[in-house]
Amino acid sequence: MKIVWSLFDSGNSSYKRAIDKYFDNIENYSIGIDKLNKNSNFINLDLSNFKEIFGDRSLFETLDELPKPDIILASPPCESFSVASAMKGGNKFYVWEDGNMTPSTANRILSKNDTPFKSDVAKATLTRINGELCAYNTIRIINRYQPETWVIENPQSSKIWYYLEHNYNFVGIANVAHYAVYDKSFPKKPTTFMSNKFLSLGKMSSGSKADIVIGSRGQGRKQIRDYNERSNIPLNLVKDILEQVI
User: Fold this and answer.
1) What InterPro entries is this protein classified in (predicted)?
2) Fold of 2-87+129-245
3) Which of 25, 163, 227, 243 is deepest in the core (most CB within 10 A)?
4) Mind listing the pLDDT tens digit for each residue in 145-157?
5) How far apart are CA 202 and CA 174, in angstroms?
6) Going by DSSP bridges, is the β-strand pair 173-178/190-195 parallel, antiparallel, or unpaired?
7) Can you give the pTM of this predicted structure?
């Protein structure tokens, strides 16, 4: 029996649903919080918790009570690492360059002509802080519990990979998958599953298009406004990953 910890699997629970559907030899623990408060089939734990600096060790005290994971699957929120974010030009994050903390050039720096609303700036700041804490705690959890396999999911274009490498020297193998290969009700959505293992994942040929395109209007286009639905992963893709690493 393999033990899987599914971090941030508290929205539509793609990891849990795939494991429940396809695997009898996996004991899964989905961990996180549901932003929309629609689900409760997970361990409710804030993975952006920073209160350890105030002596609150509830994050690791809770995790220490669980069976040690053989596999960690993680889908930290991508909003703060995406240029399509709450503030025009994307949320800036910071890296150490020549001994100084400076805005990362991986994201476009706001010019003097960019004038986002103050509410957008505030939202972007909170989103960035939450995203960085989630990313930081993800690698802390991996380093603490040393699973045989770890997999971190984020869009291929996400700056989380740059952030983890340049801030924490945390790198892995970038395994890219296209969602539409596994389920035609999904867009193409090039996604990286960074791991300590090589994964042979399905990709569409260059120039090919998915049946579903995320956008505003037009034939074949689909609007996804629900936060949980946006975080969906094709169950067959989760199945493919787990079959390869078990």
Assistant:
1) C5_DNA_meth_AS, C5_MeTfrase, SAM-dependent_MTases_sf
2) Rossmann fold (3.40.50)
3) 163
4) 999 999 999 999 9
5) 13
6) antiparallel
7) 0.80
